[in-house]
Description:
Elements (H helix, E strand, L loop, with lengths): L21 E6 L12 H5 L3 E6 L16 H12 L7 E6 L1 H16 L7 E4 L18 H11 L10 H15 L17 E6 L7 H5 L9 E6 L5 H4 L1 H13 L10
Helix pairs in contact: 2-3, 4-5
Amino acid sequence: MTATKADRTPYxxxxxxxxxxxxxxxxHHAGGSASVFSGWQRALGDAVSVVPVQxxxxxxxxxxxxxxxxxxxxxxxxxxxxxxxxxxxxxxxHSLGGLVSYALTRQRAAAGRSIPExxxxxxxxxPHRRHxxxxxxxxxxxxxxxxxxxxxxxxPTLRAYPDWLRAAASLARDDLALGLNHxxxxxxxxxxxxxxxxGDRDPLMRENxxxxxAQHTRASFSxxxxxxxxxxxxxxxxxxLELLGSAIxxxxxRRASVA
Length: 259
């Protein structure tokens, strides 16, 4: 069974190209939105359909309540995206989006449902390790917003608009709550390959944060270092998308399974 227009979901602002042999589901960072992946389709070509995932509480979903608990979000994604995950696909999650895509893959693997041909993660530590920004709840709004601006997660121009800055910081704070007490300590390695991308100047990533992703797969594992900080895909877009495209090209058509 394949997805049809009857399976439309607010989690997908645009439907996948049904003619493409492979789908790339993209999960945005905390405080981000599906629009951060604009331009990726043009760069990656027609062999893959780029499918940004939109969490509630932003852009056209602005009026929907934001989800702050990871299991609740994963259950919603599992149900809403399932019709679109029955054809070969890969995933890329950036920063907190890496945790979300990993948790979704983990749940689907445990249930014996289809999982990505490759799990690709950027700027997020191995999920059994603590991320630096989960301590953001200890910062006041001004300190937190300043941290996000310094990282590149919020435009510096918002400093001139306090209300917008507070709104952007509030969205990021709620998203980061997904990483608090997510409970991923005991885990079974995934049967699909894992590719980790990291910025060579990312202040939030330590070497072990990257290397220990290898524990989460019993298939192949790779690390790609890209010039830039925490938001290296937008610091070095041409190189990053070339590396991402190369990883996708090595996927082939093998369907990942839990066997």
